[in-house]
């Protein structure tokens, strides 16, 4: 076993063992005499632990070494002086546009710098260039861009660009011109190279059914409207469903958005998973064809399906300010449930007998209390008509709404009411704000639900109802559906395939 040396506080000690004895005896000379070995420079410990043997010569040597190292570092350290860099002068607008024309920004923003491309060092200016009498330019109106700005960017004079935009605005609102509209611009001769060119002509498709031409006549720009004949007859597609409803309708020529609307419409009446390959689809959607050949499709208007021998027909109709799908009998969507009038509220008191905190005796609590901060919005729980809006004794500011099916709701202790009696409200529509008016100990909304005029527990209330078209509106609805499908609207009929 080799010798084991340990670093101790006062020097190196030795551990037992044959090797230790051998190492110890190696430090002695002849028998009976003591020999002190000579220490070389390599034996001197330059890194002294200043935490031990304090006050010894070795400790002071270590301290001197440390001081020398610190002093040498300070002596050799360079002086620290702030580096000043002169800030470049702000670029002029023309210089800034020139710089941007070399960057990617013009491409990202529709080349709105007005520069084609800045010249590089390899470009040499020409002493003279021929002046073109006329320049024809094809440009595109970018998203969020302005007509006058596009014209100026292409080199048109400012006054002409503003005049052209004003003339176009007299025919169609500038905001209605769609992004991506192609502009055919003709710029005329200019009196000198130092000015921009005048606009000689401008033509583009302002709407699907309208084109506009601007031409210069006797030095003035004039506007010419060119109406485009459009056939707006809705398109009807029918066919067998086969292996996939989506693929069958897309293969028939229906746009993806129309197919998506169709599936959403019938999914509320027919389970999509139950549709079979032998079933047939039937749809009518908005379709416009211009005399110039362009086609534009719009919303789905009619959705029909022959499923297990029965025909379901649905059409869009607006009733009571709400558009939804109605079947051939005039029945709309069936909806259940109601919206809580105060979002995120805490129910501080339930329905039933309770000890009144102000009156001091027990009595029937005909609703629930929804605690919420002062000023929290209160919305209508369901569609209905406002029957009462005003002060109502202990309820304070109170609103009562009548709903279909003999149902009703009440909202009390409001800080402010924003509806009036006789007003029609939609589910989720704002009717007031949480307060603490009347007999109230803090801001909350007292919410009541009635059935047949009697208060019931809101937790057990059912607001299920089905919208129905009636009277003369039903006759118009059926006539519209018959016009689209070419079939009388009555009982269930199988829709024949076209072609």
Automatic annotation (TrEMBL):
Annotated Gene Ontology MF terms? hydrolase activity
Where in this chain does the record put each M23ase beta-sheet core domain? 363-458
Q: List its EC numbers.
A: 3.4.-.-
Q: Give the main EC class.
A: hydrolase
Query: Which domain of life, per UniProt?
Result: Bacteria
Q: Which InterPro entries does this one have?
A: Cell_wall_metabolism_enzyme, Dup_hybrid_motif, M23ase_b-sheet_dom
**Which keywords does UniProt give here?**
Hydrolase, Signal
Name used for this protein in its record: M23 family metallopeptidase
């Amino acid at each position: 076993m080799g010798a084991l040396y340990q670093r101790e506080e006062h020097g190196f000690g030795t551990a037992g063992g044959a090797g230790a004895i051998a190492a110890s005896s190696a430090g002695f000379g002849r028998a009976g005499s003591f020999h002190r070995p000579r220490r070389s420079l390599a034996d001197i410990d330059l890194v002294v632990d200043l935490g031990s043997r304090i006050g010894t010569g070795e400790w002071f040597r270590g301290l001197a070494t440390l001081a020398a190292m610190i002093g040498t570092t300070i002596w050799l350290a360079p002086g620290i002086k702030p580096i000043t860099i002169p800030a470049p002068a702000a670029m002029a607008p023309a210089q800034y546009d020139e710089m941007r024309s070399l960057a990617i920004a013009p491409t990202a923003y529709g080349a709105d710098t007005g520069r084609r491309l800045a010249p590089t060092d390899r470009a040499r200016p020409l002493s003279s260039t021929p002046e073109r009498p006329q320049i024809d330019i094809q440009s595109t109106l970018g998203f969020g861009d302005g007509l006058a700005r596009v014209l100026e960017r292409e080199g048109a004079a400012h006054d002409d660009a503003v005049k052209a935009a004003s003339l176009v605005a007299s025919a169609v609102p500038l905001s209605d011109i769609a992004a991506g509209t192609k502009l055919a611009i003709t710029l005329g001769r200019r009196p000198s190279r130092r000015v921009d060119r005048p606009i000689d002509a401008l033509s583009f498709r302002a709407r699907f059914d309208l084109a506009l031409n601007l031409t210069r006549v006797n030095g003035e720009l004039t506007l010419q409207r060119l109406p485009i004949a459009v056939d707006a007859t809705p398109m009807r597609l029918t066919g067998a469903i086969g292996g996939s409803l989506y693929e069958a309708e897309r293969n028939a020529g229906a746009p993806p958005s129309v197919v998506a609307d169709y599936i959403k419409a019938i999914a509320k009446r027919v389970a999509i998973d139950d549709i079979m390959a032998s079933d047939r689809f039937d749809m009518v959607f908005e379709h416009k064809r211009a005399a110039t050949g362009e086609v534009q499709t719009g919303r789905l208007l009619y959705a029909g399906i022959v499923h297990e021998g029965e025909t379901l027909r649905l059409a869009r109709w607006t009733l009571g300010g709400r558009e939804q799908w109605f079947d051939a009998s005039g029945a709309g969507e069936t909806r259940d449930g109601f919206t809580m009038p105060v979002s995120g509220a805490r129910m501080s008191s339930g329905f039933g007998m309770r000890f009144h905190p102000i009156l001091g005796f027990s009595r029937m609590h005909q609703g629930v209390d929804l605690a919420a901060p002062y000023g929290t919005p209160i919305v209508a729980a369901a569609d209905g008509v406002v029957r009462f809006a005003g002060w109502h004794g202990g309820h304070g500011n109170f609103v009562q709404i009548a709903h279909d099916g003999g149902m009703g709701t009440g909202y009390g202790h409001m800080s402010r009411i924003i509806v009036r009696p006789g007003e029609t409200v939609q589910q989720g529509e704002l009717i007031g704000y949480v307060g603490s008016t009347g007999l109230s100990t803090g801001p909350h909304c007292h919410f009541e639900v009635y059935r047949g005029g009697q208060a019931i527990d809101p937790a057990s209330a059912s607001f299920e109802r089905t919208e129905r078209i009636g009277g003369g509106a039903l006759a118009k609805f059926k006539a519209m559906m018959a016009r689209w499908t070419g079939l009388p609207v009555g009982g269930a009929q199988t829709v024949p395939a076209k072609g």
